[in-house]
Amino acid sequence: MIAILTGILTTAALAGAVLALSALGGMLANRVGVLNLGLDGLMALGGITAIITVSVIPNPYVGFLAALLVGAMFGVIFAFATVVLQASQVLCGLALTIAGSGIAGTVGRSYAGQHAGAVFQGLKVPLLSDIPILGPALFSQNVLIYLAFVILPAGFYVLLYRTRHGMNMRAVGENPAAADAVGIPVRWIRFVYVTLGSAVSATSGAYLTLAFIPSWSEGITAGRGWISVALVIFAGYQPIQIAIGALLFGCVSALSYVGQAQNWAVPSAILSMLPYIVTLAAMMIPKLFLQNMRSWGAAPQALGTAYFRDQR
Amino acid sequence: LPVVGPGRRSLAVIVSILLALVLSGGGLALFGFSPMLLLGSVLQEQFGSRFGLEDLGLIYAPIVFCSLSMAICMRAGLWNIGAEGQFYVGAAAATGAGLFLHAPPWLMWPLMIVGAIAGGMIWMLIPALSRVYGAVDEIISTLLLNFVAVLFITYLTSGPWRDQKTFVNAASGRIPYDLPALSGALHIGIVVAVALAVLLAIVFYYSRWGYEVLMCGANADAATYAGMPVGRRLLQVMLLSGAIAGLAGMIEIVGTVHRLQTGISSSYGYLGIIAGVLVRGSMLGVLLSAGFAATLLGATSILQAQGLSTGTALALTGTVLFFAAMGQRLAEFRIIRVAVDTENP
User: Fold this and answer.
1) Which among B195, B233, B227, B229 is positioned nearest to B214, based on CA atoms?
2) Share of chain A above pLDDT 90, in %
3) Which of A117, A176, A247, B4 lies at a 20 to 30 A Cα distance from A13?
4) pTM summary value
5) What residues of chain A, 9 to 68, have a C-beta less than 8 Å from chain B?
């Protein structure tokens, strides 16, 4: 029993870190009013970049950084289309997802099925790693898990809620016209954070291919980017809640892995549906049962709308 | 909002498609393929022979269905990213009816059609209800159900419905029904698709119901004020959209593949999205853009033979969609000379 629990929680932490990184990047864009539906494509691009990089330079951190850079590159393209040209955010996001997975598949054809050249190594925290169940799951994993669950969420929380710049960001997301009127550079802020968010999202792919699955295959993201889009909504666009929610969602997908490993009586295809169904339910429950969405965290008012100074 | 003429819009879309193709060609050249040679072989194989044209017709029909399913949602200001999933469930329902119901042959066709329509609708039901009554984003809910649908088909074809005769991996038994053929391998699905497009165009452009749908999508408050049942109209459109995608699944089953498998939709649902978007949800325009999407898909199966991966289709599709999105927006821009007061700046 303890072994199963440890297994579930260990996998949950790994799966959750992928979701957390992806969702945190998406949240950054959402908070300044841009809907980024391209998370799944960014994850695929980050994943293949990391795999190719470590096959040349066998250092997972270099792979991670390379994914960050490629994410930023595609982020610039996405931000140019949605913020500068003000094209439809939904269409550009879908296009980024479709093209991103496609490009990753095309580029990564010769890497399919290969084991990653280098993977993130676990790091045992003294004392804490000896705690039963929690120790192996949370305190003997690689360092990046703390980045995904602690450093980035806390950092983004401080940025958004404890700095003036963060207040400006939120203003741009809630009411860009008002923000513009008081002299906040709306487009500039949107451009920067959409790009930065895309970069962070792409690192989730590096985590997926260098720590969670350690290999590459086409369609490896399996819709995890979309789950993280839903996770941002479920978590009410709040960084700390995203980290907690990611661990919860991670537990669900861990359940299906462990179920398959333990030969439960449920067919594996049915178990694999769990993450998607739970995600769907998680999106609906707060909306259907909580009358007061404000307390949960409503979407930024201007989310999904382009800002054009001449158009009121 | 500025009103942009259809000529300017079509020009923008055509220019963006060309740009996207040129860019993709450049990308392929980077991988050591010669884009001109590839283009030549693609055109040669698709339009140069009767078999090529028949194959094109075979993939054209399901893409028209899926784009119509997208287009009618766009008419109501909604998105249906889940045509892929509804397609699979419709196909599964039709196969189930074909395999396990033993009715006289004349009754089987209506049963399979009803099954497919019901399957597509059921798959759309949860996103539709939660969109209309809970304001849950239908883009994500329809998309997540695509993954569930594919897993569901995997379960059916590798478990309870698995073919007992030939033990083909992950496929159901063969169903003994076949659509009448037009020419060679080409079945009448293509005729049904075109007829459906015309029918939907008439309903959506000339009926009171169609007008109400447009109104409810454009401005829900105004529609409510005018006494229209907004929630019900949106629900009806979404369910109809699911039904069309489900029907596409059935036609693919009885027309082309004859057994349920996971790969029966070659991203038809996603190609339907871009075909719908390129013509901004015009029912008749879809006939044209679906042709483009079918050519694109046909091209990738030829490119695969030349050593490119299946992902290349998606890469091309995504690039075209991206450029089309930008092009449609750019068509709305206009260069204005602002009169500057030079004396009192």
Assistant:
1) B233
2) 28
3) A117
4) 0.88
5) 37, 41
